[in-house]
Amino acid sequence: MDSLPFDDRGLIPAIAQQYDTGQVLMLAWMNRAALVETLATGRVCYWSRSRQALWRKDETSGYRQWLKELRLDCDGDTVLLLVDQQGPSCHTGRSSCFYNRVDGEDLVVDSRSLSRE
Amino acid sequence: MDSLPFDDRGLIPAIAQQYDTGQVLMLAWMNRAALVETLATGRVCYWSRSRQALWRKDETSGYRQWLKELRLDCDGDTVLLLVDQQGPSCHTGRSSCFYNRVDGEDLVVDSRSLSRE
């Protein structure tokens, strides 16, 4: 854990992916404490850059992200969280935060599933 | 494009996901020029933080990432690239960079597919 290349803010980006559908839900940031708590409790905890505090998703949204598996990439500088998301992942009420699709010069709001369900 | 919240280095994180299997391949960084080139050519171009240069994947690996769809998250500060990856995405020859799985206190090298194929 201590060998992970946290950036100069002590953070590492974390991708949350719904474990069974493959849908990419969100990208957020973790510090060492968030990572330790996530692994210890099985409930995903991030670091909120805006609030400068640990951010347990259910505290703000009421919906938990349960950790199924935690992976690191080849450089160890990105986390992939395979999760089971209860309710919407996005604060807009959508299942995924990635609902803005670039279509030529336009940005189209498109909340259809990115998974193969 | 100019309204995107690039960070103080002029960068935005970009997640590459194989469009048909859902496998998360890698996370890299884009600046404005990389984003413009990717959208114009349909071949994914990143910004290499180590080389401080535009990084077209096929120049280093020989394998192209073709862009299928580009999405932005709710805050507009993360890109999701749905791609068709030719050959391995990772410089280690694996399809995905996320082959290190945390298993209790251990890190297990695990290159089985993350998709539901």
List the main descriptive attributes of the protein structure presented here:
EC 3.5.4.19 (chains A, B); 117 residues; homodimer; four-stranded mixed sheet; histidine biosynthesis (chains A, B); cytoplasm (chains A, B); zinc (chains A, B)
SSE topology sketch:
The structure is a homodimer of 117-residue chains.
Chain A: E1 12-18, E2 24-30, H1 32-41, E3 45-48, E4 53-56, H2 57-61, E5 65-72, E6 79-85, E7 100-103, E8 106-109
Parallel strand pairs in A: 1-6
Antiparallel strand pairs in A: 1-2, 3-4, 5-6, 7-8
Question: Uncertain spans of chain A, ≥5 residues at pLDDT below 50?
Answer: none
- The assembly state of the depicted protein chains is homodimer
Given the structure, what is the number of helices of chain A?
Answer: 2
Q: Roughly what is the average pLDDT of chain A, rounded to an integer?
A: 89
Main β-sheet of chain A, in a few words?
4 strands, mixed
Superfamily (CATH H level) name of the domain at 12-90 in chain A: Phosphoribosyl-AMP cyclohydrolase
N-to-C series of helices and strands of chain A:
EEHEEHEEEE
Structural class of chain A: mainly beta
How many beta strands in the DSSP annotation of chain A?
8
Radius of gyration of chain A: 15 Å
At CATH's second level, what is the architecture of the domain at 12-90 in chain A? Roll
Enumerate the strands of the largest sheet of chain A in spatial order, edge to edge or round the barrel.
Answer: 2-1-6-5
Distance between the termini of chain A: 35 Å
Helix content of chain A: 10-25%
The CATH topology label of the domain at 12-90 in chain A is Ubiquitin-like (UB roll)
CATH class of the domain at 12-90 in chain A: Alpha Beta
Tell me which protein chains meet in the greatest interface and how many residues each side has.
A-B, 37 and 37 residues
Pathway (chains A, B): Amino-acid biosynthesis; L-histidine biosynthesis; L-histidine from 5-phospho-alpha-D-ribose 1-diphosphate: step 3/9
Binding site for Mg(2+) (chains A, B): 73, 75, 77
Domain Phosphoribosyl-AMP cyclohydrolase (chains A, B): 26-99
Enzyme class (chains A, B): hydrolase
